[in-house]
Amino acid sequence: MKIITSLHETDFHLKSTFWLCITAGTLVLPFAYYHLVYQDLGIGIGGLITSLSLFLVAGLIYRKSYKTIYTFIWLTPFTTVFVAYLTNKIGISGTYWCYSTVLLYYFMMSERQAWLSNLLFILVNFPVVWQLLETTEAIRFTVTFLLVCIYSAIFLRVITKQYSELTHQAITDKLTGLYNRTLLQDSLTHAIRKTKRTQTAFTLIVMDIDHFKKINDELGHDMGDQVLVQLGAFLKGFFRESDKVFRIGGEEFLILAYNTVETDCVHQAEELRRSIESLSLIPDRQITVSIGVAGLDSAEDWKQWMKACDMQLYEAKKGGRNRVVASSIDQLNKKSFPGLKVSSTPV
């Protein structure tokens, strides 16, 4: 289960980038103003563009629309050339800007983009440094710059890995390895918004193991846990990677089916019911499940959607268990689904 797909998808990283951009943009602004008014016009314009670009990145992060490619395509080549211009103009003091620039690269972009940006920075700026400075000073700069690059990469790699591990622990059920309830509200809310924006279909499947308490009472909690673990592994393989599978209670599971209309999801749920019924989770004992299915339809929020699906699950249990219950779907051929009951319960 992939928790973080990109270095810059972590909340802490975006927050760090936001405040670094605000701080750097604010500090560069008076430097730019001073050069615009009293010193070199080119340095002043370059500083002003850098400051405004940093504020723009902070604004995009605040609006939750920032993409690292923006920085990679625009800010990387511009700052690389600007620092080379600074060094050429004012000598060794221009190299001081190299260190803050490399740190910003690591925070504002993915690790791969940061390495590529630093490689470009080295190819452009090192020849300038070695041409302008004495050999001893150039060596010192080269060593310290490379150390800052390596330290930054190591630091962010370790922090990101730890963040990923903590996030995984926070959102994952320890017993089954499925998602727990932590991500449930955000996942359902995102699905509702995506449906309104792009007309993508989402359907909920809520599944409950029949007579699970009896298993624990007669065979012990260890056997009950074993059933949950095996069933969790089965659900991971049964559903697609684009679907989200949650364990939301003791023996209750929820699946958020992506880009699947309710009609198709009912077919899938019935196949799931039959498959679990045929599994040998406990020797000489059949395990069955009751399943409720609800499409998004007119639900306005995640609670309403969950309630609609829970009502279908309740109908499945009330109707004798080991069956699938869906909201009104008259077009389904009930003869094809011996375990299926079509409910008239409104969503």
Automatic annotation (TrEMBL):
It is an enzyme of class 2 (transferase). The keyword DNA repair does not apply. It comes from the Bacteria. The chain crosses the membrane at residues 12-35, 41-62, 69-86, 92-108, 115-133, 139-159. One of its GO terms (cellular component) is plasma membrane. Gene3D superfamilies: 3.30.70.270. One of its GO terms (molecular function) is diguanylate cyclase activity. The keyword Transmembrane helix applies. Keywords: Membrane, Transmembrane, Transmembrane helix. Residues 200-329 form the GGDEF domain. GO terms for biological process: cell adhesion involved in single-species biofilm formation; negative regulation of bacterial-type flagellum-dependent cell motility. PROSITE patterns: GGDEF (PS50887). Its EC number is 2.7.7.65. Its cofactor is Mg(2+). It catalyses: 2 GTP = 3',3'-c-di-GMP + 2 diphosphate. NCBIfam families: GGDEF. This is diguanylate cyclase. It comes from Amphritea japonica ATCC BAA-1530.
